[in-house]
């Protein structure tokens, strides 16, 4: 039976500026085949059908409602037919909550030396063994329907932010045509589909792309191609210009963003969904988030530190271990350090999102944002 999938805005702040900062924050409910997701939400990334260093039950315990996985990587290995054999991605990876799969477009276009782009699709060579592959919108539909994700992303062309305007315009045309082809062949009724707005750092091109993509009745709309090397101030400026052209009754997803600064900025502009590999990648390299700023826990100064990593955090790591013990694990390359660090960093962001949702419901988002950064930027924990 097809689930009652959809999105509804629950609470929306007045679109006003306080101290030069806009507040168009909102909460919502995203109803998907494998559950209801409260927004705004941060999605941990499980590129290879796993969030590195963490088990599904650990992710549930720290409040993870939805994961992101990657079409491109799962296509290359183990292969989508193998995952179909297991009944889909949920069964394969032992995760019974919602999953969003990106189309693989960003990964394909990041292989700039290994791909050839045409209006029909992209020919690329596998970074694993050099074998040749051909991605089209139709194939990415087939793969994501086989994976059985709750949300599938259209196949788009992600042009570099500093590309010439002529190239970006060509990429926008392809993205629009590919989105229409994707929508035309998608048939899985229990799977939402999100279109993707591109356009580099040009507000004019972003508007053009938004008008094109929103003319197709997708279930939600994503903002792609931001936070890929441009200054943060430009990211926010372009994000604001883009959100102005997205329908308010559909979910908005800012792709590839995972810093507190950009998450708060996005929430203030009415963005509902975020994802990034940064929390777990940082944890594997000994950089951990705390309410007082980032900590490089491998530093020798933490060898004799009995304090928890963050006394404001309720995760397993902070409840059971000292900074000194974590320093010991990281300094010796113990896997347990990366596990505990990843657990903490994901919980830091899921807890932040929980508090953001409460602050919006209680009409005090601006106050929470100020209090959060007053402490986070104090750099008490920086090391």
Describe this structure as you would to a colleague:
The protein is of the alpha/beta class and about 375 residues long. The chain folds into 2 domains: about 5-275, TIM Barrel, CATH 3.20.20; about 285-375, no CATH class. The protein has 15 helices and 18 strands. It has helices spanning about 55-60, 70-75, 80-85, 90-95, 105-110, 135-145, 165-185, 205-215, 230-245, 260-270, 280-285, 315-320, 325-330, 335-360, 365-375; strands at about 5-10, 15-20, 20-25, 25-30, 35-40, 40-45, 65-70, 100, 115, 120-125, 130-135, 150-155, 190-195, 220-225, 250-255, 275, 285-290, 295. It has an 8-stranded parallel sheet with strand order 6-16-15-14-13-12-8-7. Strands 1-4-5 form a 3-stranded antiparallel sheet. The chain has a 3-stranded antiparallel sheet with strand order 9-10-11. A hairpin with a 2-residue loop joins strand 17 (about 285-290) and strand 18. Helix 6 (about 135-145) crosses helix 7. The termini are far apart. The model has no long low-confidence stretch (mean pLDDT about 95).
Helix and strand arrangement:
Elements: E1 6-12, E2 16-18, E3 21-23, E4 26-32, E5 35-39, E6 41-44, H1 56-61, E7 67-70, H2 71-76, H3 80-85, H4 89-93, E8 99-102, H5 105-110, E9 115-117, E10 122-125, E11 132-135, H6 137-147, E12 151-153, H7 165-185, E13 192-197, H8 203-213, E14 220-223, H9 232-243, E15 252-254, H10 260-268, E16 273-276, H11 278-284, E17 287-290, E18 293-296, H12 316-320, H13 323-331, H14 335-361, H15 365-376
Parallel strand pairs: 6-16, 7-8, 8-12, 12-13, 13-14, 14-15, 15-16
Antiparallel strand pairs: 1-4, 2-3, 4-5, 9-10, 10-11, 17-18
Helix pairs in contact: 6-7, 7-8, 8-9, 11-14, 13-14, 14-15
């Amino acid at each position: 039976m097809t689930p009652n999938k959809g999105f509804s805005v629950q609470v929306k702040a007045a679109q006003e500026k306080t101290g030069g900062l806009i507040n168009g924050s909102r909460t919502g409910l995203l109803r998907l085949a494998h559950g209801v997701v409260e927004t705004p939400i941060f999605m941990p990334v499980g590129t290879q059908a796993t969030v590195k260093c963490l088990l599904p039950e650990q992710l549930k315990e720290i409040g993870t409602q939805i994961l992101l996985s990657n079409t491109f990587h799962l296509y290359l290995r183990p292969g989508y037919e193998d995952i179909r054999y297991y009944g889909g991605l949920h069964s394969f990876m032992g995760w019974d909550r919602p999953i969003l799969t990106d189309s693989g477009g960003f990964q394909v276009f990041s292989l700039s030396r290994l791909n050839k782009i045409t209006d029909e699709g992209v020919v690329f060579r596998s970074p694993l063994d050099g074998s040749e592959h051909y991605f089209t919108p139709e194939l990415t539909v087939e793969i994501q329907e086989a994976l059985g994700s709750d949300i599938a992303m259209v196949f788009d062309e992600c042009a570099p932010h500093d590309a010439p305007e002529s190239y970006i315009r060509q990429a926008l045309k392809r993205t629009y045509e590919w989105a229409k082809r994707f929508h035309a062949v998608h048939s899985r009724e229990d799977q939402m589909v999100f279109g993707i707005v591109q356009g580099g750092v040009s507000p004019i091109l972003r508007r053009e792309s938004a008008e094109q993509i929103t003319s197709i009745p997708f279930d939600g709309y994503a903002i792609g191609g931001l936070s890929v090397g441009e200054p943060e101030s430009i990211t926010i400026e372009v994000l604001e210009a883009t959100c102005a052209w997205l329908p308010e009754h559909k979910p908005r997803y800012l792709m590839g963003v995972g810093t507190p600064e950009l998450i708060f900025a996005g929430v203030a502009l009415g963005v509902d969904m975020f994802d990034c590999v940064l929390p777990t990648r940082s944890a594997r390299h000994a950089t951990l988030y705390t309410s007082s700023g980032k900590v490089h826990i491998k530093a020798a100064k933490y060898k004799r530190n009995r304090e928890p990593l963050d006394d404001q955090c309720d995760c397993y790591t902070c409840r059971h271990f000292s900074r000194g013990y974590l320093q010991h694990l990281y300094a010796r390359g113990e896997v347990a350090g990366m596990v505990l660090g990843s657990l903490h960093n994901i919980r830091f962001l899921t807890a932040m999102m929980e508090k953001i949702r409460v602050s919006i419901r209680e009409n005090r988002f601006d106050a929470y944002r100020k209090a959060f950064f007053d402490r986070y930027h104090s750099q008490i924990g920086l090391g």
